[in-house]
Specification:
Layout: H1 2-17, H2 21-24, E1 26-31, E2 35-36, E3 41-49, E4 61-65, E5 71-76, E6 82-87, E7 90-95, E8 105-114, E9 121-129, E10 135-136, E11 138-142, E12 151-155, E13 171-177, E14 185-188, E15 194-197, E16 207-216, E17 223-233, H3 238-243, E18 248-253, E19 266-271, E20 280-284, E21 290-294, E22 302-311, E23 318-327, H4 347-394, H5 409-417
Parallel strand pairs: 1-10, 2-11, 13-17, 19-23
Antiparallel strand pairs: 1-3, 3-8, 4-7, 4-9, 5-8, 6-7, 9-11, 12-14, 15-16, 16-17, 18-20, 21-22, 22-23
């Protein structure tokens, strides 16, 4: 009997605490986002609405139940009419100091968060308590973290990447002139992925610079690195030009004529056989450049190559000059064929003179006699022919009678005609 009395008392108390107006009002849960990524935060608002003009609410207690494996309570974000508390998977909302409300209002504003290890799926935010049958809960979806770690675009303003950008290509090259800081535009395919660019693109050095663009997927399990090799060409200063200079301003060979031209790298010389070494003077345009001369001694007969090497002060350039030297052969010794006239008293020389003169006279007479002998034979033949011809021409025919010399046939014929 006592239990029934207590039960009736409690029911009367509830009816007293929750006036009839509650039956007409509507209680609902709204949220700031429908899809939440793990570790993502969102706001939950509990509203009371649809009050009639003579209705009011006071002394309410509401509950929001949720899946603790997916989401969690963070904080009360400012609920002036309610006290907010959380225990496990339930948030309790109670009327603050008996405040009465007769129009639409927010009972509670709560910050919640999807757990960082939450699996993808839906979580119900169910509303219960003093709202009776007018409790409208909500669902929030925990989305899976992205796994994409690629870029959808990559560019550097005022430059051209080689090759042309493709999401699957990770290595590129480009060249710039006199620019020490760049802007790198990198857009991930998944907007939730993280992009990190190495800081050296802000302070490039002369020569090659490697810029890395690292893309990490939202879930942190995938990563991809895109590399841009940037070659920075800088206009050299006068000092840098001098340090990189490896030319000669002077090139001389002692006792030899050499027409030096700074733009000419090869020269030719011809020297006597007696010259076995050449003294070469080579001065660099930059006094701090290193100059070496090789093969200018122990010249051999024929062609020799003297090599002059100039290494720039900064060792970035090397120039080589050559002198092609031809050393002549030694002159052959001419043996004397005549005696020394200053030493005529020498008996050997006298004998030599006599023998030479005798041989010369004999040789000369032989030629003369041979000539005349040959000449006599020729004359003999010539004269013999001429004598024969002359003899034939002068030989007289003997005349025996006068008739043999006078032709009288015409005269005789004339007489006979008469």
């Amino acid at each position: 009997m006592k239990k029934q009395i207590i039960k009736v008392f409690l029911m009367a108390l509830i009816l007293f605490a929750v006036p009839n107006s509650i039956k007409a009002a509507t209680f609902s849960v709204t949220k700031s986002a429908d899809n939440i990524k793990p570790s993502g935060e969102f706001i939950v608002i509990v509203k009371a609405s649809n009050f009639e003009s003579d209705e009011s609410i006071t002394g309410y207690t509401l509950y929001i139940d949720y899946d603790v494996t997916k989401i969690e309570f963070v904080s009360d974000e400012g609920s002036p009419l309610s006290n907010i508390s959380s225990n496990g998977g339930r948030i309790t909302i109670t009327n603050k100091d008996g405040t009465e409300q007769k129009s639409d209002f927010e009972l509670a504003k709560i910050k919640m968060r999807a757990k960082n290890n939450a699996s993808a799926g839906s979580s119900n935010l169910s509303l219960s308590g003093s709202c009776g049958n007018s409790c409208n809960g909500a669902n929030v979806t925990v989305a899976a973290l992205g796994t994409d770690a690629t870029l959808s675009s990559l560019s550097i303003p005022n430059t051209t990447l080689n090759p042309e950008f493709s999401s699957g290509t990770t290595s590129y090259r480009t060249s710039i002139q006199d620019i020490t800081s760049l802007t790198v535009n990198a857009t991930p395919t998944d907007s939730s992925a993280k992009v990190q660019i190495s800081d050296n693109y802000k302070n490039l050095q002369k020569g090659d610079n490697k810029i890395d663009v690292v893309v990490t997927s939202e879930d942190g399990n995938n990563q991809k690195t895109y590399t841009i090799n940037v070659t920075l060409n800088m206009t050299p200063t006068e000092e840098e030009l001098l340090k990189a200079n490896a030319t000669l301003k002077e090139l001389k060979v002692k006792d030899q004529k050499l027409d030096f031209d700074p733009n000419e790298k090869k020269y030719y010389l011809t020297v006597d056989n007696k010259i076995e070494k050449l003294e070469v003077t080579a001065k660099a345009t930059n006094d701090k450049a290193k100059v070496t001369v090789e093969n200018n001694s122990k010249l051999k007969v024929g062609k020799n190559t003297i090599k002059i090497t100039v290494v720039s002060e900064d060792t970035t350039k090397t120039e080589t000059y050559q002198i092609i030297v031809t050393r002549n052969e030694a002159e052959k010794e001419v043996k004397k064929t005549c005696p020394d006239i200053n030493n005529m008293s020498n008996w050997t020389n006298m004998i030599w003179i006599v023998i030479s003169i005798t041989a010369f006279v004999t040789f000369t007479l032989g030629i003369v006699l041979g000539y005349f002998l040959c000449k006599k034979d020729v004359l003999h033949k010539i004269f013999k022919k001429k004598n024969k011809k002359k003899k034939n021409d002068e030989e007289a025919v003997p005349i025996e009678t006068l008739s043999d010399t006078i032709d009288l046939s015409d005269t005789i014929n004339e007489i006979n005609k008469r």
